[in-house]
Amino acid sequence: MTKNSTRLDHVVLWVADPVAAAGFYEEAVGLEPINVTEFAEGKVAFPSVRINEETILDLAPLTLAARMKMVPGAAESAGHPVNHICLSLPADAFDALRTRLAEHDVAISGIDHDLSGARGNATRSFYFRDRDGNVFEARHYDE
């Protein structure tokens, strides 16, 4: 891929407690936290977690909702999670994620097979929710 191809850069999630949300994503999901200390010190508006080298989740506090005036209705989106976000993982990382979530008492769905996605039909997938109710799907494809 090149820097000029269309890709997903980031998704902003509304969360009640960004530090706790970053902890959840680090401990239960295994994602790298970014700017958590800086957020706690008031130096940045929100922390993030890294999905891969080119995609992050921003963990925006609900208190920022009033500042979301770039388009009509943006402020009203606070607290309304998207339907779900799908993480595509290698098979071993998929299994490790399922284990980590169970160890953190996160409710997870059963395993589905052959659900359609950006790369065709996934071998296996399951769903879980974060601390703020955002729904995630985890999946892997046969390579």
For the CA atoms, what is the radius of gyration?
A: 16 Å
- Summed over residues and divided by their number, the pLDDT gives a mean of 87
Cross-sheet strand order for the largest sheet: 1-4-3-2
Order of helices and strands: EHEHEEEHEEEE
Low-confidence parts lasting 5 or more residues at pLDDT below 50?
none
Strand content: 25-35%
**What is the CATH topology assignment of the largest domain?**
Signal recognition particle alu RNA binding heterodimer, srp9/1
Largest sheet: 4 strands, mixed
Distance between the termini: 18 Å
Instruction: Give the class from helix and strand content and strand pairing.
Output: alpha/beta
Number of domains: 2
Helix content: 10-25%
What's the CATH first level of the largest domain? Alpha Beta
Total of helices? 3
In the CATH hierarchy, the architecture of the largest domain is 2-Layer Sandwich
Using DSSP, what is the number of strands? 9
